[in-house]
Amino acid sequence: MVEVIRLGGPLGAEVRGIDPAQALSAADLAKIEEAFLENLVLVFRGAPMSARQLSNFSQNFGELQPHIAKRYQHPEVPEVVINTNQDAQGNYDKLGAERGVGWHSDLPYDQVPARATLLHAVKVPSHGGNTAFANMYMAYETMPAALKNKIEGRYALFCLGGRNRLTQGILEDPTKVPHAIHPVIRVHPETGRKSVYVNPYHTHSIIGMPRAQSDELLDEVYAWCGRPQFQWEQEWRVADTIIWENRSAWHTGKMDYPQHEPRLFLRTTVRGTPTMPPEQLKELFASVSMAASAI
Ligand SMILES: [Fe+2]
Predict the structure, then answer these.
(1) What is the span of the domain harbouring residue 186?
(2) How many domains does the chain contain in total?
(3) For residue 252, how far is its CA from the centre of ligand 1 (angstroms)?
Protein backbone atom coordinates (compact mmCIF):
# COMPACT_ATOMS: atom_id res chain seq x y z
CA MET A 1 0.00 0.00 0.00
CA VAL A 2 1.61 3.27 -1.12
CA GLU A 3 1.71 6.00 1.51
CA VAL A 4 2.82 9.54 0.54
CA ILE A 5 4.01 11.78 3.38
CA ARG A 6 4.67 15.39 2.45
CA LEU A 7 7.88 16.68 3.96
CA GLY A 8 6.52 20.10 4.85
CA GLY A 9 8.66 22.22 2.55
CA PRO A 10 7.90 23.84 -0.79
CA LEU A 11 8.44 20.45 -2.45
CA GLY A 12 9.27 16.90 -1.45
CA ALA A 13 7.44 13.84 -0.11
CA GLU A 14 8.47 10.49 1.31
CA VAL A 15 6.93 7.38 -0.21
CA ARG A 16 6.44 4.38 2.06
CA GLY A 17 4.88 0.99 1.56
CA ILE A 18 6.75 -0.19 -1.53
CA ASP A 19 10.13 -1.79 -2.13
CA PRO A 20 11.83 -0.02 -5.07
CA ALA A 21 14.08 -3.07 -5.55
CA GLN A 22 11.01 -5.16 -6.51
CA ALA A 23 8.59 -4.91 -9.45
CA LEU A 24 5.78 -2.38 -8.87
CA SER A 25 2.07 -2.97 -9.50
CA ALA A 26 0.36 -0.67 -12.01
CA ALA A 27 -1.80 0.78 -9.22
CA ASP A 28 1.22 1.58 -7.01
CA LEU A 29 3.09 3.09 -9.95
CA ALA A 30 0.10 5.33 -10.79
CA LYS A 31 0.06 6.62 -7.19
CA ILE A 32 3.81 7.25 -7.27
CA GLU A 33 3.53 9.11 -10.60
CA GLU A 34 0.74 11.28 -9.20
CA ALA A 35 2.81 12.05 -6.08
CA PHE A 36 5.82 12.83 -8.28
CA LEU A 37 3.95 15.42 -10.36
CA GLU A 38 2.49 16.98 -7.22
CA ASN A 39 5.58 17.01 -4.98
CA LEU A 40 8.44 17.25 -7.56
CA VAL A 41 10.78 15.21 -5.36
CA LEU A 42 10.06 11.77 -3.87
CA VAL A 43 12.20 9.99 -1.30
CA PHE A 44 12.24 6.20 -0.79
CA ARG A 45 14.14 5.20 2.34
CA GLY A 46 15.99 2.10 3.50
CA ALA A 47 16.05 0.02 0.29
CA PRO A 48 19.58 -0.89 -0.86
CA MET A 49 19.77 -1.42 -4.62
CA SER A 50 22.32 -2.67 -7.12
CA ALA A 51 22.95 -0.68 -10.33
CA ARG A 52 20.72 -3.15 -12.19
CA GLN A 53 17.90 -2.79 -9.65
CA LEU A 54 18.11 1.00 -9.82
CA SER A 55 17.92 0.80 -13.62
CA ASN A 56 14.87 -1.48 -13.42
CA PHE A 57 13.13 0.79 -10.90
CA SER A 58 13.97 3.89 -12.97
CA GLN A 59 12.45 2.39 -16.11
CA ASN A 60 9.03 2.58 -14.45
CA PHE A 61 9.26 6.32 -15.12
CA GLY A 62 10.28 6.20 -18.79
CA GLU A 63 13.11 5.49 -21.16
CA LEU A 64 16.57 5.94 -19.64
CA GLN A 65 19.07 8.30 -21.18
CA PRO A 66 22.77 7.40 -20.84
CA HIS A 67 25.02 10.33 -19.86
CA ILE A 68 27.21 11.97 -22.52
CA ALA A 69 30.32 11.77 -20.32
CA LYS A 70 31.52 8.17 -20.59
CA ARG A 71 34.04 8.37 -17.77
CA TYR A 72 31.36 8.07 -15.07
CA GLN A 73 29.40 5.28 -16.75
CA HIS A 74 28.79 2.12 -14.70
CA PRO A 75 30.89 -0.66 -16.31
CA GLU A 76 28.10 -3.27 -16.41
CA VAL A 77 24.98 -1.11 -16.54
CA PRO A 78 25.78 1.74 -18.99
CA GLU A 79 22.55 3.63 -18.31
CA VAL A 80 23.71 4.07 -14.69
CA VAL A 81 26.14 6.87 -13.83
CA ILE A 82 28.48 6.57 -10.85
CA ASN A 83 28.63 9.83 -8.90
CA THR A 84 31.63 9.71 -6.61
CA ASN A 85 34.18 12.02 -5.00
CA GLN A 86 36.96 9.40 -5.25
CA ASP A 87 38.99 8.04 -8.16
CA ALA A 88 39.75 4.33 -8.72
CA GLN A 89 42.69 4.53 -6.28
CA GLY A 90 40.50 6.01 -3.54
CA ASN A 91 41.99 9.52 -3.86
CA TYR A 92 39.83 12.63 -3.77
CA ASP A 93 38.55 13.41 -7.28
CA LYS A 94 37.80 17.16 -7.41
CA LEU A 95 36.13 17.01 -10.83
CA GLY A 96 33.89 14.11 -9.79
CA ALA A 97 33.10 15.66 -6.40
CA GLU A 98 32.12 19.05 -7.80
CA ARG A 99 29.93 17.80 -10.65
CA GLY A 100 26.40 18.99 -10.11
CA VAL A 101 27.30 21.66 -7.55
CA GLY A 102 25.46 24.83 -8.57
CA TRP A 103 21.70 25.22 -9.19
CA HIS A 104 20.55 23.44 -12.35
CA SER A 105 18.22 20.91 -13.90
CA ASP A 106 19.62 17.87 -15.68
CA LEU A 107 20.30 17.76 -19.42
CA PRO A 108 18.81 21.10 -20.57
CA TYR A 109 21.71 21.26 -23.06
CA ASP A 110 19.95 18.38 -24.81
CA GLN A 111 17.13 19.38 -27.15
CA VAL A 112 15.01 16.73 -25.40
CA PRO A 113 15.88 17.38 -21.76
CA ALA A 114 15.41 14.92 -18.92
CA ARG A 115 12.02 14.23 -17.38
CA ALA A 116 13.41 12.95 -14.12
CA THR A 117 16.62 11.90 -12.40
CA LEU A 118 17.00 9.16 -9.81
CA LEU A 119 19.81 9.07 -7.28
CA HIS A 120 20.57 6.16 -4.94
CA ALA A 121 22.90 6.58 -1.96
CA VAL A 122 25.59 3.90 -1.58
CA LYS A 123 28.06 5.79 0.65
CA VAL A 124 27.34 9.08 2.41
CA PRO A 125 29.67 11.29 4.50
CA SER A 126 29.19 11.58 8.27
CA HIS A 127 27.68 15.04 7.84
CA GLY A 128 26.86 17.55 5.09
CA GLY A 129 26.67 16.73 1.39
CA ASN A 130 22.92 17.26 1.15
CA THR A 131 21.19 17.66 -2.20
CA ALA A 132 19.11 20.83 -2.27
CA PHE A 133 16.02 21.34 -4.45
CA ALA A 134 14.08 24.46 -5.45
CA ASN A 135 10.49 24.66 -6.69
CA MET A 136 10.47 26.60 -9.98
CA TYR A 137 6.65 26.56 -10.27
CA MET A 138 6.58 28.53 -7.06
CA ALA A 139 9.37 30.83 -8.24
CA TYR A 140 7.36 31.63 -11.37
CA GLU A 141 3.97 31.95 -9.68
CA THR A 142 5.23 34.38 -7.01
CA MET A 143 7.54 36.36 -9.29
CA PRO A 144 6.91 40.13 -9.43
CA ALA A 145 4.96 41.04 -12.58
CA ALA A 146 7.69 43.43 -13.76
CA LEU A 147 10.24 40.62 -13.87
CA LYS A 148 7.75 38.12 -15.33
CA ASN A 149 7.05 40.52 -18.17
CA LYS A 150 10.72 40.73 -19.04
CA ILE A 151 11.05 36.98 -19.57
CA GLU A 152 7.60 35.86 -20.74
CA GLY A 153 7.75 34.53 -24.32
CA ARG A 154 11.56 34.55 -24.41
CA TYR A 155 13.86 31.68 -25.38
CA ALA A 156 17.32 30.83 -24.12
CA LEU A 157 20.38 29.07 -25.38
CA PHE A 158 21.63 26.32 -23.07
CA CYS A 159 24.98 24.54 -23.18
CA LEU A 160 26.81 22.11 -20.94
CA GLY A 161 28.33 24.32 -18.22
CA GLY A 162 26.42 27.43 -19.33
CA ARG A 163 27.85 30.93 -19.61
CA ASN A 164 30.59 30.20 -17.07
CA ARG A 165 31.77 26.92 -18.63
CA LEU A 166 31.43 25.12 -15.35
CA THR A 167 31.96 21.58 -16.58
CA GLN A 168 35.26 21.93 -18.41
CA GLY A 169 37.14 18.67 -18.22
CA ILE A 170 34.31 16.15 -18.33
CA LEU A 171 33.92 15.98 -22.11
CA GLU A 172 36.10 13.67 -24.20
CA ASP A 173 36.08 16.33 -26.94
CA PRO A 174 35.82 19.82 -25.39
CA THR A 175 35.22 21.43 -28.80
CA LYS A 176 31.85 19.67 -29.05
CA VAL A 177 29.88 21.36 -26.31
CA PRO A 178 26.28 20.15 -26.54
CA HIS A 179 23.75 22.97 -26.75
CA ALA A 180 20.00 23.45 -27.16
CA ILE A 181 17.26 26.07 -27.14
CA HIS A 182 14.33 26.08 -24.71
CA PRO A 183 11.77 28.58 -23.44
CA VAL A 184 12.81 30.69 -20.45
CA ILE A 185 9.38 29.93 -18.92
CA ARG A 186 8.40 26.35 -19.59
CA VAL A 187 4.89 24.92 -19.68
CA HIS A 188 5.04 21.52 -18.01
CA PRO A 189 4.00 18.87 -20.55
CA GLU A 190 1.98 16.89 -17.99
CA THR A 191 0.61 19.38 -15.46
CA GLY A 192 0.25 22.38 -17.81
CA ARG A 193 1.74 24.63 -15.10
CA LYS A 194 4.40 27.22 -15.91
CA SER A 195 7.81 27.28 -14.24
CA VAL A 196 11.16 29.03 -14.62
CA TYR A 197 13.30 26.82 -16.84
CA VAL A 198 16.58 28.76 -17.17
CA ASN A 199 19.20 27.90 -14.56
CA PRO A 200 22.55 29.36 -13.44
CA TYR A 201 24.62 26.29 -14.37
CA HIS A 202 23.60 25.40 -17.94
CA THR A 203 21.94 28.49 -19.42
CA HIS A 204 24.18 30.43 -21.81
CA SER A 205 22.09 33.46 -22.78
CA ILE A 206 18.65 34.79 -23.61
CA ILE A 207 18.08 34.87 -27.35
CA GLY A 208 17.63 38.23 -29.08
CA MET A 209 19.39 40.30 -26.42
CA PRO A 210 22.91 41.72 -26.29
CA ARG A 211 25.00 39.51 -24.04
CA ALA A 212 25.42 42.10 -21.26
CA GLN A 213 21.64 42.65 -21.09
CA SER A 214 21.03 38.91 -21.10
CA ASP A 215 23.52 38.43 -18.26
CA GLU A 216 21.88 41.18 -16.23
CA LEU A 217 18.38 39.74 -16.74
CA LEU A 218 19.48 36.19 -15.95
CA ASP A 219 21.14 37.47 -12.75
CA GLU A 220 17.87 39.12 -11.77
CA VAL A 221 15.91 35.92 -12.46
CA TYR A 222 18.39 33.79 -10.52
CA ALA A 223 18.36 36.18 -7.55
CA TRP A 224 14.57 35.69 -7.38
CA CYS A 225 14.60 31.93 -7.97
CA GLY A 226 17.39 31.41 -5.42
CA ARG A 227 15.22 32.57 -2.51
CA PRO A 228 15.26 30.12 0.44
CA GLN A 229 11.45 29.83 0.62
CA PHE A 230 11.48 27.80 -2.61
CA GLN A 231 14.04 25.32 -1.28
CA TRP A 232 14.22 22.03 0.57
CA GLU A 233 17.19 19.74 1.25
CA GLN A 234 17.53 15.98 1.28
CA GLU A 235 19.71 14.78 4.17
CA TRP A 236 21.05 11.54 2.77
CA ARG A 237 21.14 8.19 4.51
CA VAL A 238 22.65 5.08 2.96
CA ALA A 239 20.06 3.20 0.84
CA ASP A 240 17.91 6.29 0.19
CA THR A 241 16.63 6.74 -3.35
CA ILE A 242 15.26 9.98 -4.74
CA ILE A 243 13.44 10.80 -7.94
CA TRP A 244 13.22 14.47 -8.90
CA GLU A 245 11.58 16.66 -11.52
CA ASN A 246 13.86 18.21 -14.11
CA ARG A 247 11.15 20.32 -15.73
CA SER A 248 9.90 22.29 -12.75
CA ALA A 249 12.68 22.05 -10.13
CA TRP A 250 16.31 22.99 -9.75
CA HIS A 251 18.76 21.00 -7.68
CA THR A 252 22.35 21.32 -6.47
CA GLY A 253 24.90 19.25 -4.60
CA LYS A 254 26.68 20.82 -1.60
CA MET A 255 30.40 20.71 -0.87
CA ASP A 256 30.04 21.14 2.91
CA TYR A 257 31.12 17.62 3.89
CA PRO A 258 34.53 16.17 4.94
CA GLN A 259 36.25 15.64 1.58
CA HIS A 260 38.31 12.65 2.74
CA GLU A 261 35.10 10.71 3.42
CA PRO A 262 33.70 8.71 0.50
CA ARG A 263 30.47 9.83 -1.11
CA LEU A 264 29.08 7.41 -3.70
CA PHE A 265 25.78 7.49 -5.54
CA LEU A 266 24.22 5.68 -8.48
CA ARG A 267 22.23 7.80 -10.89
CA THR A 268 19.86 7.35 -13.80
CA THR A 269 18.14 9.90 -16.01
CA VAL A 270 14.71 9.47 -17.58
CA ARG A 271 14.20 10.97 -21.03
CA GLY A 272 11.67 13.79 -21.39
CA THR A 273 9.83 15.42 -24.28
CA PRO A 274 10.76 18.27 -26.68
CA THR A 275 10.00 21.78 -25.42
CA MET A 276 8.78 23.11 -28.80
CA PRO A 277 7.83 21.97 -32.32
CA PRO A 278 10.75 21.26 -34.71
CA GLU A 279 9.86 24.11 -37.13
CA GLN A 280 10.00 26.68 -34.34
CA LEU A 281 13.29 25.28 -33.15
CA LYS A 282 14.77 25.53 -36.62
CA GLU A 283 13.79 29.19 -36.88
CA LEU A 284 15.24 29.99 -33.47
CA PHE A 285 18.49 28.23 -34.26
CA ALA A 286 18.77 30.16 -37.53
CA SER A 287 18.43 33.39 -35.54
CA VAL A 288 21.18 32.47 -33.10
CA SER A 289 23.83 30.91 -35.32
CA MET A 290 26.23 33.66 -34.26
CA ALA A 291 25.64 33.07 -30.58
CA ALA A 292 25.79 29.29 -30.99
CA SER A 293 29.18 29.49 -32.66
CA ALA A 294 30.47 31.55 -29.75
CA ILE A 295 29.73 28.86 -27.13
FE1 LIG B 1 22.21 17.37 -11.65
Answers:
(1) 3-293
(2) 1
(3) 7
Question: 47's torsion region: left (phi>0), alpha (psi -120 to 50) or beta?
Answer: beta
Q: What is the CATH number of the domain that holds 250?
A: 3.60.130.10
Is beta strand 185-187 parallel, antiparallel or unpaired with respect to 264-271? unpaired
- Spacing, Cα 105 to ligand 1 middle (Å): 6
- Would you say 196 and 184 are in contact if contact means Cβ atoms under 8 Å apart? yes
Q: Are strands 131-135 and 179-183 parallel, antiparallel or unpaired?
A: unpaired
| Contact criterion met (CB below 8 Å) for 289 and 160 | no
Segment 99-108, tens digit of pLDDT: 888 999 999 9
pLDDT along the chain (295 residues), means of 10: 95 97 96 98 97 98 86 91 89 84 94 97 96 98 98 95 70 71 98 98 94 96 98 98 98 93 96 96 82 53
The answer, as to whether pTM is greater than 0.90, is: yes
Say how many Å lie between the CA of residue 1 and the centre of ligand 1: 31
